[in-house]
Amino acid sequence: SVLVSVWIWVERVRMMQRYHVLKRIESVRRDVVRGVRGLTGLAAVVERNTRFQSVDDVDVAGFEKMIGAQNVVTDSDELKSYNEDWMGKYHGHSRVVLRPKEAKEVQDIVKYCHEKRIAVVPQGGNTGLVGGSVPVHDEVILSLNRMDRIDSFDEMSGVVVTQAGVVLEKLDNYVGEYGYRVPLDLGAKGSCQIGGNVATHAGGSRVVRFGSIRGAVLGMQVVLGDGTLLDSLKTLRKDNTGYDLKSVFVGSEGTLGIITALSIACVRKAAAEQVAVLACDSFASVQKLLLLARKHLGEQLSALEMMDGHAVQLALKNLSYVRDPCPDSQHPFYVLIEASGANEDHVTAQMDALTEAAFEDETAVNGTIAQDE
User: Fold this and answer.
1) Is the model's pLDDT at 33 over the cut of 50?
2) Are 116 and 173 found together in one domain?
3) Looking at residue 81, which CATH number applies to its domain?
């Protein structure tokens, strides 16, 4: 009975801690809503919220004490790449970029900005297409580029613990040395960061097999809007204890807190892979091809991506390393399909069955199967 009483008391303490964390999250959410009130679309003019202060020289000096002068960027030329997205569509006017290395430094920065009423925008690889990682006005940019340390990998469970600023491709190559892969693949994998992938709830071409990144996140470390550190960096796959707080931050895009570290469940690399690009004459045929792929490939279907004809022609025109999958004719839609599994003969036979069925009922009108990597 004593043990039961102690267990009940411990659970009550945990519940109260989680309750206070949720209250802080809700407080930050209300601030975000107030900050964007009146915004009706991307074309709307967003007026600067007068509740927030501008950064002055005293603030810059304070930041330099926290993370070192070499990690506080104020040079106008250096600021340009941080103040605009990679497409050059969105432009901010921040006068300072902060580049912390550890979660404690992020805490110190956020706490200071919270007390001084200085707006902050977190920035990862800055590969987004909607301007979410660049300032609207003169917010402080908190770059995670230096938080690029991979802390550990467990070969038994396939779980990697990493800082949020690690580039996706670097992380994938790291776990690849152990025969695993990150269950996420994006065109921007050479520059996007795993923290940003989680913050934007990225899907990628492998979502058809592994689902979105939410399902692979086992634990998370987050700095809340007032500088509080929420440390839930668990590595247990089967964990049904308490609230699933990490899911609150998946897809939150930095509005509820700044992700500083993650534990990710990786998947085993397949021993065999087959890739095909098939051309379709209508979007209805693309949809039908997806159903055929699920039917003939089953659990071996590991990636599927549709490309419209205009995008393919633009790539062929501007990217010298891209080859035309169907050089003899142009089509309105192209579908990339990947099958993977443990047995090469089995995977090859399944892909052959899919392409044969697709051509037989004219779901696909052209295509090719990759002969090498």
Assistant:
1) no
2) no
3) 3.30.43.10
Terminal Cα-to-Cα distance of the chain (whole angstroms): 63
Q: Alpha-carbon distance 312 to 332, whole Å?
A: 9
Selection from 112, 144, 124, 99 nearest residue 199 by Cα: 124
Rounded CA gap, 127 and 123, in Å? 10
Q: pLDDT tens digits, residue range 329-353?
A: 999 999 999 999 999 999 999 999 9
Residue with tokens 């091809």: 289
So what's the pLDDT on residue 54?
93
- For residue 120, the Cα-to-chain-centroid distance in whole angstroms is 19
- CA–CA dist 83, 80 (Å, integer): 5
pLDDT in tens, 76-111: 999 999 999 888 888 899 999 999 999 999 999 999
Residue 7 inside a domain? The answer is no
> Do residues 55 and 104 share a domain?
yes
pLDDT in tens, 135-153: 999 999 999 999 999 999 9
Q: Which amino acid is at 310?
A: H
Specify the CATH number for the domain of residue 196. 3.30.465.10
Report whether pLDDT(30) > 80. no
Q: What is the CATH number of the domain that holds 301?
A: 3.30.70.2190
d(CA 26, CA 32): 10
- Determine the structural domain holding residue 248 and report its residue range: 150-268
Query: Residues 56, 58, 63, CA angle at the centre, nearest 5°?
Result: 95
The tally of domains found in the chain comes to 3
Question: What's the mean pLDDT in 234-246?
Answer: 86
pTM: 0.81
Beta bridge partners of 280: 333
